[in-house]
Specification:
This protein is an alpha+beta fold and about 140 residues long. It has helices at about 15-25, 80-90; strands at about 5-10, 30-35, 35-40, 45-50, 60-65, 65-70, 75-80, 95-105, 110-115, 125-130. It has a four-stranded mixed sheet with strand order 1-4-3-2, covered by helices on one side.
Length: about 140
């Protein structure tokens, strides 16, 4: 296994985070305590920390005619796995900020993208590429 990414984010309800990340996104739960829960987000360590009253800032930046929430985080998948996830999330009733679609069509860096918020308002983006070699294509 290569290097792993670690991200700690604030949430305002650990039980909601447990349902969202554990059940809706399918992240395996790791260690936990009264104020935090570890999740495996596609093998990377995501830690949700309870912060009472947390409300994230809402900023947006235009990317390929979409108002992209900033900040955001997520995972880059191969396109078939991204499509499967998009279908599963749509079926689960996820409310998308930006619905699943292809960005930069027929250009270097063509990618599937979708944005949504967790129950605490943290923005997530999941991307899908035909090959990981094209992630940084110019």
């Amino acid at each position: 296994m290569g290097n792993l990414f670690h991200l700690a984010i604030p949430v305002n309800d650990l039980q909601e985070a447990k349902i969202f990340y554990g059940e809706k996104l399918g992240c395996k739960q790791g260690r936990s305590d009264k104020t935090w829960i570890d999740f495996s987000l596609y093998g990377h360590q995501l830690v949700t920390h309870y912060v009472p009253g947390y409300r994230p800032s809402q900023f947006f930046n235009e990317v390929d005619n979409d108002a992209v929430p900033v900040p955001h985080f997520g995972i880059i998948l191969l396109i078939d796995e991204w499509l499967e996830l998009a279908v599963r999330l749509e079926a689960s009733g996820i409310e998308f900020v930006i619905k699943p679609h292809i960005r930069f069509k027929d250009m270097p860096g063509e990618q599937g993208t979708m944005f949504f918020h967790d129950p605490s308002g943290n923005a997530l983006e999941f991307k899908g590429f035909r090959s990981f070699d094209s992630v940084f294509a110019k």
